[in-house]
Design a protein that fits this description.
- The chain is α+β, with helices and mostly antiparallel strands and 159 residues long.
- It is built from three helices and eight strands.
- The strands form two sheets. A four-stranded antiparallel beta sheet has the order 1-2-3-4, with helices on one face. The chain has a four-stranded mixed beta sheet with strand order 7-6-5-8.
- A hairpin with a 4-residue loop joins strand 3 and strand 4.
- Helix 1 runs antiparallel to helix 2.
- 24% of the residues are buried.
Length: 159
């Protein structure tokens, strides 16, 4: 990559992560106010973990540069050669919130992104890139347009 090229962030690809931190962060905040004298250390530890997750959620998302597609998740960053990515898919969420149920049953209102990559035999799924169906569909289409592939909705399991 030359020094003049720029990495583009796909709009909306991190909003689900930030919203989930906000939702999960409400619990320790309420506990901190309610149980202040009794469990102060536990509540402070919970708030510190939520603060760290909030800081990390700012960087979660999909990034595209001239050579690579980069997906930043909670604990890992994946870098794929753009030429290896054959398609971008969106489907119902399968992750921590629904105990990794990997079918098309509506167990959560969330949807997520997946990639068809030539070097993998299965579709790669990325539960950190989550959101409503319309939001994830827009993110998938924007990602596909940015790297020049097609985007499709899949209803079957990621196999």
């Amino acid at each position: 990559m030359s020094p003049t090229t720029r990495t583009q962030r796909i709009s909306g690809s991190s909003s689900g992560a930030r919203k989930s931190v906000l939702f999960i962060g409400i619990i320790p905040a309420i506990a901190f106010v309610h149980f202040l004298p009794q469990a102060q250390i536990v509540c402070i530890a919970g708030l510190l973990i939520i603060a760290a997750a909030a800081a990390r959620s700012v960087f979660i998302g999909i990034y595209v540069d001239p050579d690579n597609l980069i997906i930043v998740s909670w604990f890992r960053t994946w870098k794929f050669d753009r030429a290896e990515v054959g398609r971008v898919v969106w489907r119902r969420y399968s992750g921590l919130y629904n105990r990794y149920i990997d079918d098309d049953r509506p167990t959560t209102p969330f949807w997520m992104i997946g990639l068809g990559v030539a070097s993998y035999t299965r579709l790669r799924k990325f539960p950190a890139i989550l959101g409503s169906r319309k939001k994830i569909e827009r993110v998938a289409m924007a990602t596909a347009d940015a790297i020049g592939v097609r985007s499709v909705r899949v209803s079957e399991s990621f196999t």
